[in-house]
Design a protein that fits this description.
By secondary structure, the protein is α/β, with parallel strands linked by helices. It has 16 helices and 9 strands.
């Protein structure tokens, strides 16, 4: 199979490589997917979208003047590149392998049709390997993102791509509207691993922050005062600062990242650590707290709710 850069050259021709005229499909219009697709739509009128809830896809298409389709297989048949932004391995498996999934009609419609799949959600390295094995000769690239809904809206995500620098350059028209930086990690699957590594750190920080805030609140210090001290201390981090409003009043703001998704991420990270023989005691504690919180009714709340969970 030719390298991605050569594949794009063959598909578009040298005159169009790096152009914004490639037909891009986007599957998954959730909290992160919607603003990401919106940024792509503003840069590429040839965008095509699909969502599990058809009404949402229709609404997006009407709002941004793009096309929508009724099934993932139609997305793959019509597009040069398909981006997926899905919650987990289970959702990805259904979208790729289900009836009328992305992989069901790759060669049935047009034997010459070539499609590149870019997986931008948080999935396990094992699931990525399965996708790559079952893609019927098509290229599957892991390029998960770091950054919450605000970064997605502003087009300032960090993209961690399991692709070479040349391949990342070739995909510039896809990545540039979405990101502030793209890391070319060269090795397929490296993006998935780094996403789990980054999220493991973020969720661990969230747990420590929740405990710190809970301790201060239990001693009669207001949430506003406690957070002001933390954000001006050596312990401050971007993920702490830009989520301030959620930590101060979680119920008053839209959910950015749920406890359930954090639990899923930590579970995947621990599974990978076990496979690689890595000891992660801090992450095991964090995962245990997220499991307990989910079982206590916090699953669909923002992970900032861990402050309240630690006070309960």
């Amino acid at each position: 199979m030719p390298g991605l850069y050569q594949q794009l050259l063959q598909h578009f021709g040298s005159a169009n490589i790096g152009s914004i005229n490639m037909r891009i499909g986007f599957a998954g219009l959730g909290r992160m997917g919607w603003p990401m697709a919106a940024n792509l739509a503003s840069n590429n009128s040839a965008l095509v979208v699909w969502n599990r809830s058809p009404d949402k896809a229709r609404s997006f298409a009407q709002q941004y003047g793009v096309q929508y389709v009724d099934s993932p297989s139609q997305l793959a048949a019509q597009c040069d590149i398909v981006i997926t932004m899905l919650a987990d391995d289970r959702a990805s498996e259904a979208v790729h392998f289900g009836e009328e999934g992305l992989f069901t009609r790759l060669n049935a419609v047009d034997n010459k049709h070539s499609c590149i799949f870019i997986e931008m959600g948080t999935i396990s390295p094992d699931h990525l390997a399965c996708l790559q094995q079952q893609a019927d000769g098509q290229r599957v690239i892991d390029a998960p993102v770091s950054g919450a809904t605000q970064a997605a809206t502003e087009g300032k995500l960090l993209i961690m791509a399991g692709a070479t620098p040349l391949e990342v350059m070739a995909l510039g028209p896809v990545f540039e509207p979405l990101s502030r930086k793209v890391m070319a990690l060269t090795k397929p699957g490296a993006g998935c691993v780094m996403k789990l590594s980054v999220n493991m750190l973020i969720h661990g920080l969230n747990q420590c922050l929740a405990e710190s805030m809970a301790l201060a609140l239990s001693a009669g210090i207001s949430a506003e005062q406690a957070f002001e001290v933390i954000e001006n201390s050596a312990a401050a981090a971007p993920s702490v600062v830009y989520r301030k409003k959620l930590y101060l009043d979680e119920a008053a703001h839209p959910v950015s990242f749920t406890v359930a998704l954090a639990k899923k991420d930590m579970g995947l990270a621990l599974e990978l650590a076990k496979q690689n023989g890595v000891n992660m005691p801090q992450s095991e504690v964090t995962h245990g707290q997220l499991v307990s919180a989910s079982d206590s009714g916090y699953a669909d709340r923002d992970m900032a709710a861990m402050v309240q969970f630690n006070l309960s």
